[in-house]
């Protein structure tokens, strides 16, 4: 049975309302709310992340609802780090890969070391970089740029 687009949308919205009501009703108990949260308060918290203005205290939010709009700073950092890492890794990987592809002597000397570095699982390096470089932006950028570097480097040396 194929539903029309309007009927499909009504069913999707109905299911969302049902799930939110099914979540809100048990969350009136404080023990349940501790583990599951309350959908109205979750929606209020998400709203405060994005909106710069708040609301005064009410029945739903006894402490009021501040409007901080602080998620934009975190989104900027989250977007800046991979773009920076991709750029650094790509430029360095292409540069080193092309250099070794065009210089056969250097490629022959560094070949065993390159194979050893490339065979190391990248997932193992994440905790090492996190410990060595701390929980800073540099650690995440370094790890991502290494992945990009090895990918571009491998493609250049194989070509």
Describe this structure in words.
By secondary structure, the chain is mainly alpha-helical. The mean pLDDT is 82. The protein has 7 helices and no strands. 9% of the residues are buried. Helix 4 crosses helix 5 and helix 6 packs antiparallel against helix 7. The protein has a domain of 88 residues. Helix content is 76%, strand content 0%.
Please write out the topology.
Elements: H1 5-24, H2 30-36, H3 39-50, H4 71-102, H5 104-119, H6 122-133, H7 137-158
Helix pairs in contact: 4-5, 4-7, 6-7
Largest sheet: none
DSSP strand tally: 0
Envelope shape: elongated
Radius of gyration: 26 Å
The percentage of residues in β strands lies in: under 5%
Give the end-to-end Cα distance, rounded to a whole number of Å: 52 Å
* Overall pLDDT score: 82
The helicity comes to: over 70%
Number of helices: 7
Q: Segments where pLDDT lies below 50 for 5+ residues?
A: none
Element pattern in H and E: HHHHHHH
Structural class: mainly alpha
Quick synopsis:
The chain has 7 helices and no strands. The chain has 159 residues and is mostly helical.
Key features?
159 residues; mainly alpha; elongated
